[in-house]
């Protein structure tokens, strides 16, 4: 079960979670070990990147769904409520990891952006030369003209622009708070799934050391439940041996070792003689020994109980219902007289 859980975390995640575009790639094992660490990402880029926000949302939903499926007895809503209450206190005190610095909060403002970042086009450039070349391009000029027209319209509606500025700032803070809560919740889920994540990493490291043939053999055994050729041959040989041992043309009873008993023993105990008991529902007993023993067994006792006759030694060797009833009345008359 633990192995299936580890495989689910390692395989299903790739198909369900969309990763943000990045300039450098990261190994999957390294990603599993650090996917809950968001401190290295500047707050401004978190707020301005829609891809990052979509990534957080998908990752959060996947972890919550995975935890619900693997831990159905745990009330996840209580965990979320507890995390939310703790987050509200930390957010009010500016103690949320990655958002605890006032400088980072100020850098997230529209007026203070990272170097070589175009606010209008929402693009980050690698060098100053590329950034300056972009500023003279047609696309940037088009966005600049549209932004200027929009600002003029807003200024006409609100001459001092104070109300619009306050609303934008409030909206920005709400956006930052939502992003920060998603990060905190993901870190909390990582803490709850630490054992599973570490187990997944160990399993993947072990899997990488195996050859292609070993992996293929493991997949076949797990999915199809087949055995190796050696095991199949051994089973066939054992099956043939058992068939040879059970070869019994005279239909003799089997002994304690699973083999037919000797024929002389079969004749000695009279196992070829059939005894029928009407009280037992015409059940057949082979051999005198089995016949004598059946009078104290459950089948005969049940038949006697149905006839309302006590199953005592006085009714031993009686197999017909009529004889048993007659013996009953004779027994009662003898005791009455």
TrEMBL record:
Annotated source species: Phytophthora palmivora
Pfam families with a match to the protein in the record: SF3a60_Prp9_C, zf-met
Swiss-Prot/TrEMBL keywords: Nucleus
Region named Disordered: 217-245
GO terms of biological process kind: mRNA splicing, via spliceosome
MF annotations from Gene Ontology: RNA binding; zinc ion binding
Keyword check for Nucleus: yes
SUPFAM superfamilies, per database record: beta-beta-alpha zinc fingers
PANTHER family: SPLICING FACTOR 3A SUBUNIT 3 (PTHR12786:SF2), SPLICING FACTOR SF3A-RELATED (PTHR12786)
InterPro entries in alphabetical order: Matrin/U1-like-C_Znf_C2H2, RNA_Proc_DNA_Dmg_Regulator, SF3a60/Prp9_C, Znf_C2H2_sf, Znf_C2H2_type
Protein name: Splicing factor 3A
Localization of this protein: Nucleus
Ranges where the C2H2-type domain occurs: 118-140
């Amino acid at each position: 079960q633990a192995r299936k859980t580890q495989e689910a975390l390692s395989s299903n995640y790739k198909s369900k979670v969309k990763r943000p575009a990045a300039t450098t790639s990261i190994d999957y094992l390294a990603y599993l070990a650090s996917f809950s660490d968001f401190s290295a990402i500047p707050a401004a880029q978190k707020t301005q990147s829609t891809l990052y926000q979509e990534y957080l949302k998908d990752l959060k939903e996947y972890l919550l769904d995975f935890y619900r499926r693997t831990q159905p007895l745990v009330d996840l809503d209580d965990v979320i409520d507890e995390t939310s209450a703790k987050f509200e206190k930390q957010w009010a005190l500016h103690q949320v990891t990655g958002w605890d610095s006032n400088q980072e909060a100020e850098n997230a403002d529209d007026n203070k952006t990272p170097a070589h970042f175009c606010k209008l086009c929402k693009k980050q450039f690698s060098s100053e030369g590329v950034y300056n070349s972009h500023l003279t391009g047609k696309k940037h000029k088009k966005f600049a003209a549209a932004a200027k027209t929009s600002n003029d319209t807003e200024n006409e509606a609100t001459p001092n622009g104070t109300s619009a500025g306050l609303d934008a700032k409030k909206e920005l803070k709400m956006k930052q708070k939502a992003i920060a809560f998603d990060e905190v919740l993901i870190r909390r889920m990582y803490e709850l799934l630490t054992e599973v994540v570490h187990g997944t990493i160990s399993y993947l490291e072990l899997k990488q050391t195996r050859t292609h043939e070993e992996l293929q053999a493991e997949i076949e055994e797990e999915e199809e439940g087949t055995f190796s050729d050696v095991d199949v041959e051994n089973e066939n040989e054992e099956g043939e041996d058992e068939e040879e041992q059970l070869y019994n043309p005279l239909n003799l009873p089997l002994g304690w070792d699973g083999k037919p008993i000797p024929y002389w023993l079969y004749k000695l105990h009279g196992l070829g003689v059939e005894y029928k008991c009407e009280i037992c529902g015409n059940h057949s007993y082979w051999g005198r020994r089995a016949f004598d023993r059946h009078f104290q067994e459950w089948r005969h006792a049940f038949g006697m109980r149905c006839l309302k006759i006590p199953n005592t030694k006085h009714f031993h060797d009686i197999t017909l219902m009529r004889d048993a009833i007659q013996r009953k009345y004779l027994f009662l008359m003898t005791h009455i007289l």
